[in-house]
Amino acid sequence: MIYTTLLNIAIFQGIVLGLVILRSSLFNSNSNKYLAYLLFTLSIKLLTHVFDIQKAFISYPLLRFIDNIEWVFLIPAFLFLFIINKVDNTEKHKLRNYLYFIPFAYSAVLNIINDLDYVAGIYTIPESGIAIISILGLLQLFLAVTFIPFLPIYSYFVIRHLKDSQEKKWIITLLTLVSLLLFAWLITALAGLLLNYDISSTMNALALCATFIIHWTAYIGIYKYKLAKNKDAIYNFLNNDSAISYPNLQIVQNNPPQEYKESITADNLYFQKLELLCKDQHIYTDSTLNREKVAEKLGISAGYVSQIVNTITGDNFAHYINQYRVEAVKEMISDPEYENYTLLTMGLESGFTSKTTFYNAFKKVTGQTPNEYKNSSK
């Protein structure tokens, strides 16, 4: 009873946390949405485990359709996409995203075809068809023992390029926890399949580990990692979340609540939103961007935008935005895709309005002119 209660709490928390990440503009980003999908997948996997414990599949056989789908193929895919989007949020990776779901799609189609016979009884698969499905099942097994370990291992090489050390630390821990869970599940499943072991007790333990990962993600990923330290403020934002609605952001309130005005630190919720707009939405590429436009997007006054930026970064608003533009140019210089671009073109693409503004800002941020930086980086 206590065991299933713990699982049900984790299922509920995983679904709610996933919805909060997708629903709230404070958390929502191209990378975090995959974290939400990862939590949903873990919750579904735990739910099927609860169904098995409660013998729901006997009372409701059609639930076998959900249970027989190998949801575990989605876990390394969502985890990898979460990490790769944290490291590099450019469009070139998004075109290949669907490739990571091919093993899951293949497994799902194969199992559904099989279940339409054995579970639903809609048709009967002939003996020749059963032989083909058995062969295809071996391919599914091959995908399991190659795809499931490969993506987490490859993620360790990708995550090295993450610049934020604090962010890197907790993501590496998340990656390690999920990887260990996947490897343990894979070894257990193979032992049950090939050696005919009773793996029910081990699967119970792994399900408990999955609940821990969900709870840990909620605590460390959300509360500890500066994404939602102020619970009262989060409640306010979640109930007035239309303050930001990507990509067209609307004004909800002209002035932030007084209690949030008084606390201007790196944890300030409006500054966190501004960081998201710069890092994920790349608003700095708009050459006409100014304090008023940003204030409109955040639903606060232009003066408060300046106050936040000045207090937290020690720089004025223009320099804060130009730093993002300079970083974008530096990335273009080191990216072979832009080798045919002139330096001025890179500057204009990043949001600078003229050569003079671009060169002055670049020199101020890096201590070098764009030409000097390009030559030194070769």
Largest sheet: none
Uncertain segments are: 226-262
Write down the CATH class of the largest domain: Mainly Alpha
Order of helices and strands: HHHHHHHHHHHHHHHHHHH
CATH level-two architecture of the largest domain? Up-down Bundle
Number of helices: 19
N→C terminal distance: 64 Å
Our Rg estimate from Cα atoms comes to 25 Å
Count of spatially separate domains: 2
Instruction: Give the overall shape.
Output: elongated
CATH topology of the largest domain: Rhopdopsin 7-helix transmembrane proteins
Task: Tell me the layout of helices and strands.
Blueprint: H1 2-23, H2 32-53, H3 56-59, H4 64-68, H5 74-87, H6 91-94, H7 102-118, H8 127-158, H9 165-194, H10 200-224, H11 231-239, H12 258-261, H13 269-279, H14 291-298, H15 302-313, H16 317-334, H17 343-349, H18 355-366, H19 370-376
Helix pairs in contact: 1-2, 1-10, 2-5, 2-10, 5-8, 5-9, 7-8, 8-9, 9-10, 14-15, 16-17, 16-18
In short:
The chain is mainly alpha-helical and 378 residues long. It has helices spanning 2-23, 32-53, 56-59, 64-68, 74-87, 91-94, 102-118, 127-158, 165-194, 200-224, 231-239, 258-261, 269-279, 291-298, 302-313, 317-334, 343-349, 355-366, 370-376. It has two domains: 2-224, Up-down Bundle (Rhopdopsin 7-helix transmembrane proteins), CATH 1.20.1070; 250-376, Orthogonal Bundle (Arc Repressor Mutant, subunit A), CATH 1.10.10.
